[in-house]
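Record 1 of the preview.
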Amino acid sequence: MRRRQRRGGGKQLQGEISGIGGRGDGLLAPQPGMDGPVFVPLTVPGDEVRVQTTSRSASGTQSEILELLREGPDRVEPPCPHFGACGGCQLQHWKPEAQQNWKLARVEEAVSRAGFDPALVLPLESVGPATRRRAEFVAVQPAGKPVQIGFRRRSSHWVEVIETCMVLRPALVEALPLLCEALDGLIEDREGLRLHITEADNGLDIALSGGLKPGFETQDRLARTAEAAGWARLTHDELPVAVREQPRLGLGKASVPLPQRAFLQPSADGQAILQTLVLAAIPDEVGLVLDLYSGHGTFALPLAERGHRVAAYEGAAPAIAALEAAAREAGFSGLTAATRDLNAWPVSGAALQDAGAVVIDPPRAGAKAQCEALAQDGPGTVVAVSCNPSTFARDARILRDGGYDLEWVAPLDQFLFTGHVELVARFFR
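->
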């Protein structure tokens, strides 16, 4: 593989790829005169490459391949024609078994860094392809050309038009040509229109944001397209364009009315695995369970259905409103919910002491302040869900220093071909 050298730019280096960084880029073996790691996209361990550095940041030096001199033993042909240009996947060129071993090792290393035995990490579970049910696209219309919808290219504002995708649910990809036709001549934002598409249980929920040509013609054309396609809801800048019915997501007996651009687990299969692990980690006899960073009830609603009293806390008000509505409809009188910024105002003191168990599912930044409160006043069982092994290691160390032990950690890969890995961990004291 050869790539045209950029004019100017940084330093040229040559060496072997020694590993993979947390974001899925290869790591060049240490080089004389280089301060910190050198990241090389689209490489695998064992590759020998000639690269040119392009930029530096606090995390290290970015580079691009000028020439692939030797292929590593686990390099494979990427199965997707968009790979390399599309910024969605980073690892399709790496043997699947090697990817899984690397993700498992990342979790084991995080557990070790927290001060626990990495042997407590269970085997990695993975979801299959074509299961991701939400994605954000960009739509642009260059002068004199049709509308283009896809993902941003790697390190670029250009759009890679998506015609097929190995990770997305088919319904999401099938909607793109219809949207291209409907949006022809209507996009006014030069930066492009953002399209957040979610496959709900009862159809697609499509939220457009950005500059569109104003007027009845725009609204009418989009509404007709949505109606003909049978989409559940189409909005623009949070205003309804066409609503066939409220998009909903079933969580056991409960049915959640989804807010616009709702955050939900990327796949139904991954969601089911996480729910099974969380429920298995909480004893049946536990009365009150606190669900912190609850979202719209991924864990709170199944816990309430099992008979626990549940107090849910979440920073996003629309998610809490959806959770409360679902609980009312399902008749879960023992579930309460409140909007609360847990990073600025963690649940602490008596509120923690009254609980029999706590579930935390924070964003990638983790739950440092909340874990400090748990270390002080937390109950006998804490179940941690994490999408970032690095911040999990930090938070787990806080719990350990507060007297918690670790029973098990279950890793999950539901972001195929990327550097992402999730986990569920059970702490006790």
